[in-house]
Amino acid sequence: MPDAGRQREKVLAAAHALNRNARPGNDQGFRVVVTGKGGVGKTTVTALLTHLFARSGYTALAVDEDPQMNLPFALGMPQDGGGGIVPLTKNLDYIEEKTGARPGAGWGLMLTLNPDVSDVVDRFGVTGPGGVKILVMGTVVQAATGCLCPENTLLEAVIRYINLRKGEVILMDTQAGVEHFGRSLAKGFGQALLVTDPSFNAVTVVKHAAVLARELGIPHLHLVVNRVRSGRDREKVLKILCDDIGLFSEQFWLPYEEGMNECDPGVLPLLSCTPPPPILEELARIRDTLEKYGTR
Ligand SMILES: Nc1ncnc2c1ncn2[C@@H]1O[C@H](COP(=O)(O)OP(=O)(O)OP(=O)(O)O)[C@@H](O)[C@H]1O
Ligand SMILES: [Mg+2]
Questions:
Q1: Between 4 and 31, where is the model more confident?
Q2: Which of 83, 157, 172, 233 is most enclosed, with most CB atoms within 10 A?
Q3: Which domains does the chain have, with CATH numbers?
Q4: Quick one: how far is CA 47 from the chain centroid?
């Protein structure tokens, strides 16, 4: 079998082993998935919110489901490849062995029976600046369509495996578009942030994503319109959404932030600006809303 095929089988076997052994979740924390069209600001929003949660005392785990792996840099990890991040897909032999997916290996070696964020991050992730926890899926070994991508399946199994304690939150940044947005991704996520900018195409994607997320059973969907420059932008978005605005529990409007380009790709400088830029006020409102719905 070619290498890519073997790798694919390994990934799927590890994911299935994890799924088989997962305990029914009794989360006391909450999970948020961030989705939307390419380039609308998903990674920026995920990184800023992760830091805001960490600053308010949460154990905040940022998960990068995008094979391009931009999230660690947005969170402030060094860009020279330092920082010790090992993508999940590079941990495959370890996972395979410890989950018992490898023939002859027994189950139970890898994880405690009731793993929290720290247990999983200790093995597969890193702690970044400001104490944020980071877990990265890694590159995809072989093109595959939609939610059948084995790497996604593995990441989703690992996330599902975590039993969130009170004060723990998972924020998952996803790759662009909704093609990968399937039942296995949605499982366990109580809230979705559907991010758009004011362009027609991006708003159309969140409309589609909202319908899908609703069908997949995510209870609370929030609209996040990013890079808003004027009241006209707002009117335009509302007009495109029309009655579909009713799909969203809450709506947020993040202003265009000039300073963003200067601190690209990291968001940390923005968080320490004085006075705080206006975008942070609305992001704090998103954090408070997620917290409020998270405990419902
Ligand atoms: N409110 C904002 N004001 C100005 N620039 C912004 C704002 N939000 C994000 N950006 C910039 O827009 C660009 C795209 O943002 P980001 O990478 O977060 O989008 P994305 O949706 O994750 O993209 P991709 O789909 O490629 O993963 C970045 O250069 C970022 O700095
Ligand atoms: Mg991104």
A1: 31
A2: 172
A3: 29-85+124-144+163-294 (3.40.50.300)
A4: 9
**81 contacts 73 by C-beta, under 8 angstroms:** no
Mean pLDDT across the chain, nearest whole number?
86
220 in Cβ contact with 247 (< 8 Å)? no
Answer whether residue 146 shows pLDDT above 50: no
Say how far apart CA 154 and CA 89 lie, in whole Å: 8
Name the pTM for this structure: 0.91
Whose C-alpha lies nearest to ligand 1, atom 23? 39
Q: Which residues line ligand 1 (CB under 6 A)?
A: 38-44, 66, 70, 176, 226-227, 254, 256-257, 260, 264, 279
Compute how many other C-beta atoms are within 10 angstroms of the C-beta atom of residue 45. 25
Task: Determine the residue type at 113.
Answer: L
The answer to whether the CB of 13 falls within 8 A of the CB of 20 is no
What's the token pair of residue 17? 């082993």
Angle (deg, nearest 10), helices 3-21 and 150-161: 20
What confidence tens digit (pLDDT) does each residue in 48-93 have? 999 999 999 999 999 999 888 899 999 999 988 667 888 887 777 7
